[in-house]
């Protein structure tokens, strides 16, 4: 390998290392996805979640055909 090629390779690796480290956070222990004042991200994946339940809307229920309404499933 020539001296020029080795120097070019070393400079390219140095530049790539500098660019990649510039993209990281200064403190990796901080979580940027967490809302302010919380340690976690706010996504509850446990079994005791507050689930959203749909409510029956009479106007929408009136639009369902009678055969489907009698069957009880869509």
UniProtKB/TrEMBL annotation:
Location of the region described as Disordered in the Swiss-Prot/TrEMBL record: 27-51
Span of the signal peptide: 1-22
PROSITE patterns: PROKAR_LIPOPROTEIN
Keywords: Signal
Source taxon at top rank: Bacteria
Name of protein: ABC transporter substrate-binding protein
Organism listed in the record: Streptomyces sp. SID7499
């Amino acid at each position: 390998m020539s001296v020029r090629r080795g120097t070019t390779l070393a400079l390219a690796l140095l530049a790539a290392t500098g660019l990649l480290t510039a993209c990281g956070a200064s403190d990796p222990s901080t979580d940027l996805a967490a809302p302010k004042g919380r340690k976690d991200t706010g996504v509850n994946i446990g079994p005791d979640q507050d689930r959203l339940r749909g409510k029956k809307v009479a106007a929408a229920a009136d639009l369902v055909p009678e055969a489907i309404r009698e069957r009880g499933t869509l």
